[in-house]
Amino acid sequence: MSREKPLSQKTTRNTRYIPRHHKRILCIFPKYSRSFGTFHHAYPLRGNVRAFMPPQGILVVASYLPKEWEVRFIDENVRSAIRADFVWADVVIVSGMHIQRPQMNQINELAHREGKITVVGGPSVSGCPEYYPEFDILQLGELGDATDQMIEYLDLHSNRPQKQIRFETKERLPLNEFPIPAYHLLNFDQYFLGNIQFSSGCPYHCEFCDIPALYGNNPRLKTPEQVLAELDAMLKYGNPGAVYFVDDNFVGNRRALMQLLPHLIDWQKRNGYPIQFACEATLNLAQSPKLLEMMREAYFCTVFCGIETPETEALQAISKTHNLSMPILEAIKVLNNYGMEVVSGIIIGFDTDTPETADKILEFINLSQIPMLTINLLHALPKTALWSRLEQAGRLVSDENRESNIEFLMPYEQVVEMWRRCVTTAYEPEFLYQRYAYNMEHTYPNRIEVPNSPARASWANIKKGLTIMSNLLLRVGLLGNYRKTFWNMALPALKAGKIEQLIHVGLVGHHLIKFTTECAKKEESASFYSQKIRKTVHT
Questions:
Q1: How far apart are CA 200 and CA 183, in angstroms?
Q2: The pTM is what?
Q3: Are 42 and 508 in contact (CB under 8 A)?
Q4: Which of 4, 166, 294, 429 is 20 to 30 A distant from 301 in Cα terms?
Q5: Helix spans in 168-321 (H)
Q6: How far is 408 from 354, CA to CA, in rounded Å?
Q7: What span, in angstroms and rounded, lies between the C-alpha atoms of 374 and 454?
Q8: Distance CA 296, CA 293 (A)
Q9: Smallest Cα–Cα separation from 93: which of 64, 73, 78?
Q10: Is 29 within 8 Å of 77 (Cβ atoms)?
Q11: 137-140 and 117-121: which strand pairing?
Q12: pLDDT tens, position by position, 172-201
């Protein structure tokens, strides 16, 4: 049955829906395909870690569901859902990104084998509903009136609908009314990082990015009080040690950020600086010294900047001219001066690329001294200006054996080899550790000195540090194939008492080096968004 109109008992933000029936809801977040950004090679060094970050979206949905219902959560990056999980549930809710599409459809199939109602929401289905033809219910758009309609439908129906039903959000729930994610349903010790969201949306229009189409150009905001409540909730269920602000652009609304940062500083001081912060921001953050000073005091230690390319012509062509408001190398140095290690996005495959592009990228890496860069092949996402332009030009390619869905202007194999050369050169152990040595000397000392508080010197943190150090010394220092390079970095750090820095460099560097080895053997994809077939096995 198709349902175009809202259900009769429509809920409002001021009236919580009271369900008539008891329901058991199984929320599943699909497994990611392994990629540069999953840090999976670092997990064994951390002990219990099984996944990168908790999935914010589906945890917010789990928290938004009626309190009268039983809700379970499975992150398949931690463990796969088994038949008993599906048997227990009345409804299975799934969310994810385009890269997780095969896994989401597989979960749907397993749930249907047990006769369960299935729901899919999140960015992928919101952008491309046609990717999910077999799901019973599609929740398109963000949390809002469609979510309320979906909840009421699930309350009033026990059997699968005869035809797919779509609920599309017309009125979004303001971010300042979002509930705290259901952190009580997970174990923080199993995650590499914690994460939090302050805003949604980005004021820019980069050609390859789908954020404006999905979330808008006017960043919507949570209140500082919400952010602090979420941080408190995290600490209640375990301290991840580092928290990443997953905002599309953390500095999208600078006035709001100026209001948030004093609250973060106060929270850190009251709690003994238990957490390092990281965020994603545009490079022009370097032109805001007041923001940078407050971010430094709040203990922001890492900032991801979508630099994309050092080539001016390419930045203009992809509508990323805000990266040109000051010289890129100068902006990176400014951020380093405030103690922030810069992580950069780099993309290969722009129409402006030439055979010399790889040389220019490698020169930029050397001059910038950025240790970690996510080097990807360009991939066109639906709902982007890039997709529309290439579709009109007949340059979108559907081939599951390719690393990208774009017909590049340069020969495909040449572009892939440029990517492979950049990756394998950038993460050659000596070159990588050289850049880390620069940051250990010129960036990390610019951070504030945090107190040796009970929160930082807890037995759990000491145990975590001992675990990582022993694993680093054994797996890298004794058994690693780059152990000589490791010791050249580690011995001076140990003598200087820079244990935290050594752990950071050792952990992240190990993943980068191991992942690069697989790239050199053509065992890993050249794009996080690659359409190459990946297999996920359910047990």
A1: 20
A2: 0.92
A3: yes
A4: 429
A5: 211-215, 224-237, 254-271, 289-297, 312-317
A6: 11
A7: 35
A8: 5
A9: 73
A10: yes
A11: parallel
A12: 999 999 999 999 999 999 999 999 999 998
